[in-house]
Amino acid sequence: MSHYYSLLREATACGLTVIEKRLKSKAKGIIKGTKIGLQHELLKVEKICVLAEEVGHHHTAVGDFTDQSKLENRKKERLGRVWSYEYLIPLSLIVAAGQAGIQGRHAVAEYLEVTEEFLLHSIEHYQRKYGLYTSFNNYLIYFDPLSITKM
Q1: What's the rounded Cα separation, in Å, for the pair 64 and 72?
Q2: Is the peptide bond before 90 cis (omega within 30 degrees of 0)?
Q3: Which of these, 37, 118, 141, 149, has the minimum number of CB atoms within 10 Å of its CB?
Q4: Closest Cα to residue 150, out of 133, 135, 129?
């Protein structure tokens, strides 16, 4: 499975163009209109996470919300991130990692093709959404520490 190519297809289906280049800003990625710019020197796994967030911004918010001192802009930024967490790491993939015997943050992140930081933020998101654990397809997913148990 390659999240990157899946995201490129998603972007194209939404009428977005993805360009990898040296961005003028320090941002790893940016969306403006129908164009998404990604820093070209990012590792593939970083590109996946950044592209997911930018596609998420397309789906959840419009306008310029780069000024993060404004509460409304921080909310819009979060919406794009939440979309990316749920797109790249749905509960079904967390269960699949557990079923495959994958353990430890580094190994799980590698299996899911995301950075460890992205995985941790995703887990924090799910913990805020569901609490300490949730059930999914006859499995209990515990978020801290991350573990999967068959019911």
Answers
A1: 11
A2: no
A3: 149
A4: 135
Backbone φ and ψ of 134, nearest 5° = -150, 165
Residues contacting residue 120 through CB under 8 Å, at least 6 positions apart: 105
Task: Determine the Cα–Cα distance for residues 148 and 139; give it in Å rounded to an integer.
Answer: 6
Residue pair 151/141 in contact (Cβ under 8 Å)? The answer is no
pLDDT at residue 111 tops 80: yes
Q: Are 11 and 35 in contact (CB under 8 A)?
A: no
The pTM of the whole model exceeds 0.90: no
Q: Which one has a higher pLDDT value, 73 or 50?
A: 50
Q: Residue 69 corresponds to which tokens in the numbers above?
A: 């001192």
Q: Mapped to the 3 state alphabet, what secondary structure does the chain carry?
A: CCHHHHHHHHHHHCCCEEEEECCCCCCCEEEECCEEEEECCCCHHHHHHHHHHHHHHHHHCCCCCCCCCCHHHHHHHHHHHHHHHHHHCCHHHHHHHHHCCCCCHHHHHHHHCCCHHHHHHHHHHHHHHHCCEEEECCEEEEECCEEEEEC
Predicted pLDDT of residue 1: 47
